[in-house]
Design brief:
single chain; alpha+beta; 5-stranded mixed β-sheet; 35% helix
Length: 152
């Protein structure tokens, strides 16, 4: 039995210790915003925050999340500047990678609200977007910085 704290709520989950955290989040807890992409930790669609740090939940066993704080796309308030910027700039095309992208951008801005263009590109390049919305993703992160009151 694993005890998880997902988006501020406690869950007790009976799963094999090697079960990927992604499947626990989606199938045991029922939060389907986090997506399965490559299953190898490469694309980033499955990104969630574990103790505030982005991880690839498709390759993270649930046992490593026991009694730890997890934030999924559902745990980021819709009023947060990153979500507002994403909508305002109409970033998604197919939208499949967007939850992981937003979680990564949220963590970046929490860690460094004044991230430079180079830092944003570097961090966000760890995510794959088949639609190629990278330019809009960069603009959305920069727009979120402005909404947060960060002066360039």
């Amino acid at each position: 039995m694993f005890e998880l704290y997902v988006n501020g709520k406690q869950y007790k989950v009976d799963a094999d210790e090697k079960t990927p955290l992604l499947w626990v989040i989606r199938e045991h807890i029922g939060l389907t915003g986090t997506k399965f992409g490559c299953g190898k930790g490469i694309c980033g669609a499955c990104s969630v925050l574990l103790e505030g740090n982005p991880i690839r939940s498709c390759i993270t066993p649930v046992s490593s999340a026991h009694k730890k704080r997890i934030t999924t796309i559902e745990g980021i308030p819709s009023s947060h500047p990153i979500k507002r910027a994403w909508i305002e700039l109409e970033v998604p095309q197919c939208g499949y990678c967007q939850p992981g992208q937003i979680v990564e951008a949220y963590a970046l801005l929490k860690r460094n609200p004044r991230a430079s263009t180079e830092e944003i590109v570097s961090v966000m390049s760890s995510h794959l977007c088949r639609c190629g919305t990278y330019g809009r993703i960069l603009k959305a992160v920069q727009r979120a910085q402005k909404l947060m009151g960060v002066k360039s």
